[in-house]
Amino acid sequence: MEPDFWHQRWNEGRIGFHQDRPSPLLVDHWDAVGAPAGCKVLVPLCGKSHDMDWLAGRGHQVLGVELSALAVTQFFAERELQPEVTESEAGVHYRAGAVEIIQGDAFELPGGLLAGCAAVHDRAAMIALPHDLRRRYLATVYAGLPPGCRGLLVTLEYPQQQKDGPPFSVDAAEVEALFHDRWDATMLERRDILAREPGWIAEGITELHTSAWRLGKN
User: Fold this and answer.
1) pLDDT tens track, the chain, 218 positions
2) Parallel, antiparallel, or unpaired: how do β-strands 183-192 and 91-96 relate?
C-alpha cells in the first residue's frame, strides 16, 4: 500500500483495525513463543496498539515502527505520557518508559537497527500488506532480526475474492512458504471469529478465521 493510503486512514479516523484492548491471541499465546524475559520486542506497523502496553507490562522493552505521526502522538497522548523525541536516519524516535516508537517507513530501516530485538509481535503488519509486498517485507524487516529471534504472528483467513483488503487474507500455505527458508513457523491456534464480526458478515464474508503462529529464526 502507498504511504498516502495509511496517512489518509489515520487522518479520517478510519482505523477499524485498531483494537481497544490487547489482542486475545497475544495474551493467550505469548508464553508459548519463548521470548527471553525482559528482551526487546519489535512491533512492526504498530499504530497505537494496546499490545505494546501489554508487552511492556510483562517486562519487555518495546520497539514499535509506525508510518503515521498521528498514530504515534495519539499513543502517548492517550496515556498522558510526554515522550522524549529524537531523530535518526530511521525516522523520528518517541520514547517514554519501556516503549519506543519510530515514526518512519519500516521498509527503509537502516541495517543493524533490529539486531537487538530478540522477539517480534506481528498482529497487524503482515495482513496489512498486499501479496506482492509480503515477500519484500520478509526480505527487509524480518531479515534484520537476529538468529534465535522468537515471534508471534497473527493472521486472518477469508475468501479474498469476497473483500478488498486491507486487511488481507494470509493462509497457512502462504505463511509456510514465506518463512520456510530462515524461520520455523508453527501454528498454535486457528480460531473461527466470523460470528463475532457483524461488520464482516454485513459485507458478505462467509468464512473468517484468525491464527496464531510461533516463529523462530534459524
Assistant:
1) 567 776 676 566 665 665 789 999 999 999 999 999 999 999 999 999 999 999 999 999 999 999 999 999 999 999 999 999 999 999 999 999 999 999 999 999 998 999 999 999 999 999 999 999 999 999 999 999 999 999 999 999 999 999 999 999 999 999 999 999 999 999 999 999 999 999 999 999 999 999 999 999 99
2) unpaired
Question: Which residue in the block uniquely carries the three cell numbers 513463543?
Answer: 33
What residues contact 22, with CB distance under 8 A and at least 6 apart? 50, 51, 53, 54
Chain center to CA of 187? 17
Question: Mind listing the domains of the chain with CATH numbers?
Answer: 3-12+22-217 (3.40.50.150)
